[in-house]
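Let's practice the habit of predicting before peeking. Look at the sequence and jot down your guess about where helices and strands might fall. Then scroll down.
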Amino acid sequence: MEPPVLLAMKMFCCYAQQYRTQQRSNSKNTSNNTDGRCFPDKSSIKLNLFHGLCGDSSDVAKLELGDRIDEQEGDHTKPTTYSLARAYGAVCDGLCLSDEEKVALSLDSFNKFAAIAKRNAFIVTTKSPFKTYYEALLRTTGGRSSARHKDAMGQLAVLLGSSDGKLSRYMDGQIEKKCAIQTSSLFTLLPKMNHSCDPNAEVCGHNFVDCLVDVVALRQIDVGEEITISYINVGRNAGKSSTDKVRR
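Done guessing? Here is the structure:
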């Protein structure tokens, strides 16, 4: 499943928790209400966790999110559409949403979260723990030439699918693939910064060894001047990546 869709599922869970908390509060206030006043119902809940971030439920097909659906109508093929119904059903089952809750926590709202995630999130690969593990393995087994190290590497090769207990040329890539997880991260302040083809700041992630990113000035920024970043690559290969095309 695509990282932005997985992120949308997490966002939807936060939204559902917020909704249920509000419902419990409304129920308590209603039971204590003696003067006939009405309190907010489920229709008043807002997407305030991610307020101000661009992305709409109608963007799902444009952003090619979810399952691709190709339909034939007679001799003609209908325009390709995309659906997040399967992902939405999975998260609804996980949250045990009632039919009443699904009215407020609808597929349309899930689609909106997915569009927000796709338009605003960073696709990141977490730092692989294998390098640290291998350095410790070298120290504890006595170095590359020791019998203990060769035995440990043989066991590792078998775990990675080797039939002869030897690491092949490309197995280090397999290790990185298994250990370094690709995911989406949403930093809610960054999407609110405007784009410029001549930005005065840039975003630095420090290889995502933690959950922080920094906005670093590229030049002197005057007092009162707007801080801008580039949504796309403005270098030699500007706009050529799939991410750049979506953002453009």
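How did you do? DSSP finds eight helices and eight strands in the chain.
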